[in-house]
Amino acid sequence: MNDILKLGNREFTNRLFTGTGKFRSRTLIPEMLKASGSEMITVALRRVDFAAGDENILEFIPKNVTLLPNTSGARNCDEAVRIARIAREAGMGDFIKIEIITDTKYLMPDNEETLKATKILSSEGFIVLPYVMPDLTYSYKLIDAGAAAVMPLGSPIGSNRGIKLKEIIEILIENIEIPVIVDAGIGKPSQAAEAMEMGADAVLVNTAISIAEDPVTMGKAFSLAVQAGRMGYLAKMGGESKTAIASSPLTGFLR
Amino acid sequence: MSFSDVLKKYENFDFDNFFKNVSEEDAGSSLDKNKLSETDLLNLLSPAAESKLEKMAKRSHDMTVQYFGRTVSLYIPLYISNYCSNGCIYCGFCASNKISRKMLTLDEIEKEAEILKQTGIKHVLVLTGEAENITSFDYIRSTLILLAKSFPSISIEVFPMSVEQYSELKAIGVDGLTVYQEVYDRDIYAKVHPYGRKRDYEWRLECPERGAKAGFRLVNIGALYGLADVRKEAFINALHAKYLDDKYPDTEIAVSFPRINSSEGGYIPSHRLSDKTFVQFLTAFRLFLPRVGINVSTRENAEFRDNILTLGITRMSAGSNTAVGGYSDDSINNVPQFDISDSRNVTETIEMLKRSGYQPILKDWELIK
Q1: pTM for the whole thing?
Q2: Which of A2, A237, B199, B252 gives the lowest tally of CB atoms within 10 Å of its CB?
Q3: pLDDT tens, position by position, B61-94
Q4: Angle at B173 between CA B167 and CA B178, to 5 degrees
Q5: For residue B282, how many C-alpha atoms fall within 13 Å in the half-sphere facing its CB?
Q6: What are A68's strand-pairing partners?
Q7: Residues 56-95 of A with CB under 8 A from B
Q8: Domain boundaries, chain B
Q9: Ranges of each domain in chain A
Q10: How many other β-carbons are positioned within 10 Å of the β-carbon of residue B114?
Q11: Cβ neighbours of B350 (radius 10 Å)
Q12: Cα-Cα end-to-end distance for chain A
């Protein structure tokens, strides 16, 4: 099956994107990437120490995996833009995940500032993936601003509670033409499968993998779940129905 | 509404009676809740909740892993002066203590910074005694400009300042403020702070809020246990953290539980915070404030720090040398502010964390100017 996700100038066959945060040891990161086959991983620029030599977190990411630097810690458009530029100048590539958060309790993104940053960074040639509250109107604006995808949160970040905003995300998937990548709040492989069955183009899972007792096996489990969900979506599931549907159509005689 | 108004609510509250009447069942049912009220917090801070300690520890551990992962942020304290114009009767830096005083020059600070840089830790906490006329705003400011060249993340623990002053320091690259109320009980506060600017209770109480207003990313508060009833102090400190957390959602709030248990600088503490109660407080704070940073310093000994690591700690100081100028000149032996109990160096602390299955975080901010 030739099922490829295109973002900017890159093509991805594995639709599980991962993250580098919260691992008990960074040596688990390359093992997790290998087991899951994830082809893109997000890294908070704030945690990268280019002067740290072997201890630089980027040393733990194999070269064939695309880096998705993120602007974690930015509280407004201006900070996000500066962080993105630092990341690119440091050689972390053109992808950027905009994460602008002024609420440390629930970690809800600021859509307004994110939209501004998207406009600026995409005009500078970045491949912009904005982390946003799912909102159809804003999604259209983000497309106009040059976003390469939208990354709506499924539930509050790190909360592992599944896709609480399911109905709204389904509306985004149905209506917007750029990829929808469900980010944040996916706690179990089954929930990743659910997002993919809904028609999400990819999911980004960090906490649920990194804090698992066995993050390597969990990475693989998520990857399989994403594949299963995607195949289910492509195979076009029959609609759910509360009443039994007779296998020979009841209105067949009308032909 | 300021935090003083919150305090008023509990001005005439009979804590002793309340704590006495909490049952194990009360504590147990508070422990099972997802969102804790102030009453639940009181229940968990009560003597009766000690019987639930294992369960509290388990929940605190799980919540901490959920929100922070198995990671601990490290920082290094840098003492640049021990001059002080306050008379805090419990502190080694107390103005009336006849100790040798030292204030580092910018050249000396540069030497200290060179050594700290080699540890790989990119977060430094700059400390002074509180002597505004000697370690002036301008002196502190010059120091911070110098350190901002080497450290992307700088916190300060110096005399309390105004919002305007904090804003000026923030523009240089300072992103964190540590200030302890020391003691929330007003009468005891007046007794243990007989003279100096620090006598002004309100000015200090509102200091963390001024830091948050100025836009610092991290504000670390705490009560110094040993001066007053520990359970009441812990409760008020938790309310203070909650107040700041609710009102300034873009600032990360952290708490510390510094305790005086043995005589320091000749001061014998009137109250004692035992290891067991320390753990009870630590875990109760986590349950009450799931995302609050919890900081443990080298006041605590190595064994205790290792043991509480998994119970909710998110920040630790490493390689602390509280002697002014002590990193670059180990012959320096001026009187410290408090006694260091964990004397391991930075490498040893990092190794301990790794062995315990925790990732030491040496850098967590990029200076963007």
Answers
A1: 0.92
A2: A2
A3: 999 999 999 999 999 999 999 999 999 998 888 8
A4: 70
A5: 32
A6: A42
A7: 73, 75, 79, 82-83, 86
A8: 3-27+37-361
A9: 5-254
A10: 12
A11: 23
A12: 36
Closest CA–CA distance from residue A199 to any residue of chain B (Å): 28
Residue B333 reports pLDDT greater than 80: no
User: Where are the strands (E) in A143-215, listed by range?
Assistant: 151-152, 181-183, 202-205
Whether B13 has its CB under 8 Å from any CB of chain A: the answer is: no
Portion of chain B with pLDDT greater than 70, in percent: 96
Are A192 and A186 spatial neighbours (Cβ–Cβ below 8 Å)? yes
**Chosen from A32, A211, A214, A218 to mutate, greatest number of chain B CBs within 10 A:** A211
Token output for A109: 């993104």
Torsions phi, psi for B341 (to 5 deg): -105, -30
For chain B, say whether A191 makes contact (Cβ under 8 Å): no
Q: Which residues of A are catalytic?
A: 97
Q: Report the complex ipTM.
A: 0.87
pLDDT for the residue A160: 59
Distance spanning both ends of chain B, measured CA to CA: 33
Number of A/B CB contacts below 8 angstroms equals 74
Q: What is the CATH number of domain B3-27+37-361?
A: 3.20.20.70
pLDDT level of residue B296 (50, 70, 90 thresholds): very high
CB contact under 8 A, A73 and B366: yes
CA-nearest residue to B350 within chain A is A25
Question: In whole angstroms, what is the distance from residue B158 CA to residue B181 CA?
Answer: 13
Q: CA nearest B112: which of B328, B333, B318?
A: B328
Report the SS3 class of residue B211.
Answer: helix
What pLDDT, in 10s, does the model give residues B118-142? Answer: 999 999 999 999 999 999 999 999 9
Superfamily of structural domain A5-254 = Aldolase class I (3.20.20.70)
